[in-house]
Amino acid sequence: MTKKLKLVFSNNSDLIINLNDSITATKLADMSQHLQRLPLRFCNYDNPFSYTSETIIKQLLENANLLNIDIDQNQLDNQLYLNVLHQIYERGYNGDKIWLEFHESIHMIEAVNSGKVLPAVEVSYRDQAGSLDKKYSYQELLSCQSTFVAGDCFVSFSELGKTPYAYWQDGEPDDIDRLIQLAKPMIRLNFKISIALADIDRTICQQDQLEFDNWFNTYKNDWCNHWSLPDWTISQIRGGIKVGEINDVDILIKNLKNNNNPAKLIPIND
User: Fold this and answer.
1) Which residues pair with 2 in a beta bridge?
2) 20 SS3 class
3) Beta-bridge mates of residue 147
4) Any bridge partners for residue 88, and if so which?
5) Residue 115: DSSP 8-state
6) Which of 8, 97, 162, 244 has CB atoms 3.0–4.6 Å from 153's, for a disulfide?
7) Which CATH number, 2.40.50, 1.25.10, 1.10.3100, 2.40.100, labels domain 2-51+117-269?
8) What integer pLDDT is reported at residue 163 of this predicted model?
């Protein structure tokens, strides 16, 4: 079985991702065998060291222009306006990758607005890997954790929607039908590995936990029943599943700062 992945950068330097023995890592290793000939889909705005509101707004405007959507730039710090853009995406999405990038840009603006951009870089093939997506088992989802150390590689929520926590935080309607429509659990594993550039703590403060629980408990049973889940905890909502680690975070950071971006992933078979 593939236990390692070689991450090759645009300057031909490389780093090794050491996969663990989890079910999820095994699935990713299997996917990598099929994807190794494809280049990674890494854009300039994916580099966290160039991740600014200016670059992300530019990306949003470019995609919106291609989709003939008018954007009010003065409203991009208003979550209610961003919720409207989410609805435009829902109504318009037709499988075109431009819609996906438009939607991704909205989430990125929300992250910048919240001041909680994760110190991590994502390695993925985006829509190129869609046919290889696999469903998570509940056993996998029980291994979700909220904290990671620098160098950890993990997978997390990547659905076309929001987590229940983000739904509540963004002031979406107090309506179970809308919650079920928009808020999802981790359903499918696609090839998107996040690498922590620094220690990450996705736990929330006790006050937020109490307020979220008070809200979510009203809808939780119906929401979990809809998604055929026995439960859904804050660790599963906010966290991720560790699938491996890299040995030298400093090399990764140096490459990213010098715009030597991830270009390819090559499985190394034992």
Assistant:
1) 269
2) coil
3) 201
4) none
5) T
6) 244
7) 2.40.100
8) 95
